[in-house]
Structure formats: C-alpha cells, structure tokens
Design a protein that fits this description.
It contains 2 helices and 30 strands. By secondary structure, it is mainly β. It has one domain: Neuraminidase (6 Propeller), CATH 2.120.10. The strands form 7 sheets. It has a 5-stranded antiparallel β-sheet with strand order 1-6-5-4-3, with no helix packed on it. Strands 2, 27, 28, 29 and 30 form a 5-stranded antiparallel β-sheet that branches.
Length: 441
C-alpha cells in the first residue's frame, strides 16, 4: 500500500472556540473520478487503544497512533477491486480487519454495481500495511452486499451479509437471503450458511437486509436483520455451525427499513445489534437499535434490550428526546466493553424546520434503561439528494474514550469528520438552554 498523503491535525486548531466537542476533519478531497468520501467506518485497536483506523468510500483509510491528535491518510488496494460499504473491526490481539465490496470490472464508477464477493484484508501492524486479502460469497451471477463483521476473544471472525439473485430485479422468483461465514484468523473461511427465509430482490422492505452480527464473551453468536416491516434475530450457541430452525421475530418496524428523508439520496432504518461483553452484571445482554418512520415525515431512533439471549425483549424505547415532528436517522451503536456503557450516534434535525442537519450522541450508563442526548457537531449542514451521501455512519468506544465518525455535506461536497470524546465530559455535559427551532431561511 502506498501512502500518498499525510494529514496532521491538531484538535485545538480543528475546534471552533464555542464548540463543546471538537470536530476533526479527516478528509474533504475528491478522488480522480470526482468521488468525495462517504460511508465512514471506525475501529479502535483493543490492544493499543491510541491506534485508531477509519475507512471511507471509495478507497480511503485514515490512521492515528496517538489517539487522534494526528492522522495519516492512505489508499486501499485489492486484487478484487475496492468498492463501497467499508467495515472495520479489531481483534483482541491487535489485528485490524478491513472489509469492503469488490469491484471486479473496475467500472462501478460509471455503471451499475457488480458486487460479486466481499473482500477481507488483515493488518498486523496497526493499519500500516495489509495482506493481499481473501474473499467470501463468490457465487456468480448473484450479488453479495451489505455485510457486517464481528470478532470474539479467541480470534474467530464472523461475517454476515445479504445475497441476492439479481440486485434490484422485480422478477417473480428472484430471491434475497442472509448468509454467514466464519474464520479462525481470517485466512480460510467456512462455506456460507443461509440464515434467513428468502425475500425479494427489489432492494425495498421485502428484501432481507441488515445482517448485523453480535458475539457474546462465551462465543454465542447472534444476527439481526429487517424484512417486511419486522426485525428478526437468529442465534448459534456452537460458534456458528448450527442456527435456529425458526427465526425469532423481535419487533415490528413500522413502515419497514426503507424510508425517505428530505435531502438524503438513500436513507434506511436498518438495525444495529451489540452484545455487552463487559464484566458487569449485564454481561451477555443484547442491545438492538434501529430507525423507523412510524409517523409521516418523522423518523425516530428506537432501542430494545434482551437479557436472555433474544428470547424476550423490552418494549421499544424512543431514544431521541426531542418533541415529535423532526427527522432523526442513520443511527450507529457501540458498547464500551470495559464499562458496559452504550453509545449511539445519529443525524438530527430537531433544531431546524428545513433540511439543516446536526449530529447527536445518545448514551446510556444504566445498560439501556435510559439515554441522554448530546449534540456533538459544531454546526449544521444541508445535504442534497442529488449527491451521494452514503447510508451509514459509525462509532467506536473503549475504556471511556468515544469516537464517532460521520459524513457532512457543504455546497454539494461531502467530507468525513470525527470527534474524540471522554466519557467524563459527557457525564458533566450541560446543554445550552433550548430556544426552539431555528426558522427556515
């Protein structure tokens, strides 16, 4: 991998003097095809926490060895090509794994996506160099996409994703399904197992999508996804070899996972699933987060918890604490496995009557019983539906340090931002007095 740009950021220089949380610009430069960065993912090295990686579409990586004070930008390469949906995870030995879609023809820039496999690369030196990569899911002419990954304390890697017979097809009999594959260390992968009942291929509510995994400290595996207005979960107690015969329907997702948000080219409410692996009394608890449009033109973020491996769940709880009538969307969640605290990040328009958008953090110090909301972006932005914005953001936390990463858009150009937040600053946070929504300009 050739490092082609080094970016040095000082958190003091990146913050506005009035900002409670310092916003750090990671990238705002288009590549040679004119694509600006979107869809960021982030991971903290569990062995060396000052080592943090961020990945963003189309093919960019950003690394820090000093906890985010300085960052280095590099370009990702793969024999299978590099396309969207970057995913980053760290194992407990200090290795990073970077997943993305393939670009087999090299023409995804100008044509419909051809996603014939999922690529997984491994770095043993904190993201400085990467191996040649392996791949899973190759099953032409079917498309493989929307993947997510987890790692357990033994170094096992699990990946779940959606396979479709023909992406976007409306043909009768065209099917989508959730698949799962595992590896010990990331070099060889098991034959994919079908987890879900089939959906259609339209890339709409009747397409099975989400495929987000979670793992308990003892190796129990869980996968959640959305289909036909319902969020489902499946589980394996033997490391991913056998799964339930009948999936568990957790909750209704009113309006389904596919909805529209003004100014966003493609939005969704796909779920996020996490397992508490801290040493507290909630060890093994499952946490589920998603968005839905239960009322027209009003999307919200919801949370549920299970203490018995998914058999029973709490009632859905709306975690954005604003008055009804505005959009909250594109949530991401993480659990600090040292403290057990839960952190979520999402876009929020509670202060505006137009498409101006802020970034909020909601956090829980009581294992999901209650949440507090904090605005973390220093100023709003206005997206345009004419420009690709991506459909996900990310957040990571470890030992009291929380690092969300998000996309913003200014004058039709996207950029990637992060913030380094200490938990004690959240606990002591005092929001500014509410003055009502800002009037539309």
């Amino acid at each position: 991998m050739r490092v082609f740009l080094v970016i040095l950021f000082s958190t003091l220089n990146c913050a506005l003097t009035f900002g409670q949380f310092k916003n750090i610009l990671l990238d705002s430069v288009a590549n040679k095809e004119g694509r600006y960065p979107i869809e960021p993912a982030i991971a903290i090295n569990f062995k060396t926490p000052d080592n943090v990686l961020v990945a963003a579409f189309p093919d960019h990586l950003y690394s820090t060895l000093d906890g985010g004070l300085t960052w280095k930008k590099s370009k990702s390469r793969s024999a299978f090509g590099v396309w969207d949906n970057p995913v980053l995870i760290s194992d407990f030995s200090g290795n990073f794994f970077y997943l993305h879609h393939s670009d087999p023809t090299g023409k995804n820039w100008a044509s419909d996506d051809i996603l014939d496999r999922i690529v997984i690369k491994k770095s043993k030196d904190g993201g400085a160099t990467w191996d040649g990569g392996t791949s899973i899911g190759y099953n032409p002419p079917k498309d493989q996409f929307q993947h997510s990954a987890i790692t357990d304390r033994k170094g096992n890697i699990g990946v779940s994703w959606t396979e479709v017979d023909k992406y976007g097809s409306t043909e009768e009999g065209c099917e989508s399904r959730i698949l799962f594959s595992k590896s010990s260390g990331g070099s060889k992968w098991s034959k994919p197992i079908v987890i879900s009942k089939p959906g259609d291929c339209r890339d709409d509510d009747d397409t099975v999508k989400g495929a987000v995994p979670a793992v308990a400290g003892d190796g129990k595996l869980f996968i959640a996804w959305s289909y036909d207005g319902v969020i489902y979960i499946d589980r394996s107690f033997d490391g991913g070899t056998t799964w339930l015969t009948n999936d568990i329907a957790i909750t209704e997702q009113v309006g389904g996972w596919n909805f529209s948000v003004p100014g966003i080219k493609k939005a969704n409410g796909l779920p996020t699933l996490m397992c508490d692996n801290s040493k507290g009394r909630f060890n093994g608890a499952l946490y589920l987060l998603w968005a839905e449009e239960s009322v027209a033109n009003d999307t919200d973020i919801y949370f549920m918890r299970s203490l018995n491996f998914g058999d029973n769940w709490t009632q859905p709880m709306r975690i954005n604490d604003d008055e009804p009538g505005s959009h909250q969307f594109m949530p991401a969640m993480t659990v600090d496995h040292v403290s057990g605290h839960i952190y979520t990040v999402y876009y929020d328009r509670r202060e505006h009557e137009d498409d101006q958008t802020d970034v909020y953090l909601a956090y829980s110090i009581d294992n999901g019983a209650t949440f507090k909301n904090v605005k973390i972006s220093d100023k709003p932005f206005i997206p345009s539906a004419d420009v690709p914005f991506g459909n996900k953001i990310s957040i990571a936390a470890h030992n009291g340090i929380i690092m969300p990463v998000w996309t913003r858009m200014d004058n039709g150009k996207t950029s990637i931002w992060t913030s380094i937040i200490k938990h004690e600053d959240l606990v002591g946070y005092k929001p500014e007095p509410k003055t009502g929504k800002k009037k539309k300009k």
